Amino acid sequence: DTAVSQTPKYLVTQMGNDKSIKCEQNLGHDTMYWYKQDSKKFLKIMFSYNNKELIINETVPNRFSPKSPDKAHLNLHINSLELGDSAVYFCASSRHSLLSGLTYEQYFGPGTRLTVT
Amino acid sequence: KNEVEQSPQNLTAQEGEFITINCSYSVGISALHWLQQHPGGGIVSLFMLSSGKKKHGRLIATINIQEKHSSLHITASHPRDSAVYICAVSPYNNNDMRFGAGTRLTVKP
To answer: I need a surface site. Which of A4, A36, A69, B73 has the fewest CB within 10 A?
Structure first.
């Protein structure tokens, strides 16, 4: 009964490859996020989707493409992987109200450690 | 300069000590979050607050909106509290989070 799940947990791949990380939440939340945690453990928002629509897209190379087939899933596809993409990627979800602007607690997945060699 | 600054970066305490971690931010916010990242890497939300004070067990979080400052206190610290504690803010009309660099806490028995 995991709330936010990610697969795979570890991903080792070579430069130039294309890979995907999957995220699913069973909390009934409207909003999902992708965060990147670099080697210095600093977290940064990459994308946010609300009801399958992109609402936040920080300055992320367009090699990264989020895909939301439904509001319970937000997958991250990465093309032409580079060494600098090595990091831990966290998915999260929350309730969200675009109309009220209220902020809600976020629930994080366990993270996917991506290593590009 | 980061929008969210935490201090200290690293903190070592003896079991039983009272611990304070500080967070200052420079943007208008709708909420401030305290997160805990375990040594295994998982991230758990401890508190979300927009005013005053909240308490869960031995953990207390306070926020002063006028001064743009928050503190996380741990009373009677225990080795199992050893983790990285991360302060994050949600800017106005935005549900994403901007993160501090984290405080690595080690509690020795």
So the answer is: A69
